[in-house]
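Here is the promised in-class demo. Please do not try to memorize the tokens; focus on the logic of going from shape to residues.
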């Protein structure tokens, strides 16, 4: 699968699926806490309800929430430093994120490993509400992308599907391109290329 994605700040994201042919033209738009989906086959925008955020994103091991980041790890979770570990040869802070009581989130808790030197998230474990491990996100291939040091490879590994994983690799990143406000609208979803 190939996608193009645009973001502006932390509040808006537009994702266009460019391949394979059966999914080409599907678009996701997040504006604040609202998530919309454009489906070319029916030529309609559909607003995704919060109940769909934990579902698979187009058959991958990522959820709708993972891709559009409807939940905010800053605003929706309490953070606690739990210790230090090494991930991929890098010293990391291990941080536990517990949902705030009023937060509407997919996960029961998260555990993140953040590189101490470059502040890169290199591993995240996602736990369900019962406390069971659901998925592990691994970030690697740290390199310069768009003039910034970032992981070039991100993979999601489900705990309940042995040998299964979804891998995303970044081909190119451009930061701060000039985008007009109308670019991130539901009307634009059917026109984006």
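The designed amino acids, position by position:
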């Amino acid at each position: 699968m190939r996608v193009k994605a645009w973001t502006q700040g932390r509040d808006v994201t537009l994702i266009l699926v460019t391949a394979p042919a059966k999914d080409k033209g599907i678009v996701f738009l997040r504006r604040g806490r609202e998530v919309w989906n454009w489906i070319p086959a029916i030529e309609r925008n559909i607003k995704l309800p919060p109940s769909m955020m934990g579902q698979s994103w187009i058959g991958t091991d990522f959820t709708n929430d993972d891709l559009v980041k409807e939940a905010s790890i800053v605003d929706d979770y309490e953070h606690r430093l739990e210790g230090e570990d090494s991930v991929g040869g890098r010293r990391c802070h291990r941080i536990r994120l517990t949902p705030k009581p009023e937060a509407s989130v997919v996960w029961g808790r998260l555990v993140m490993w953040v590189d101490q030197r470059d502040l890169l998230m290199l591993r995240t474990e996602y736990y369900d509400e019962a406390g069971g491990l659901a998925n592990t996100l691994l970030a690697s291939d740290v390199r310069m992308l768009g003039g910034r040091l970032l992981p070039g490879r991100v993979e999601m590994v489900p705990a309940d599907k042995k040998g299964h994983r979804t891998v995303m690799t970044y081909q190119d990143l451009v930061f701060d391109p000039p985008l007009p406000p109308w670019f991130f609208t539901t009307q634009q979803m059917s026109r984006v290329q």
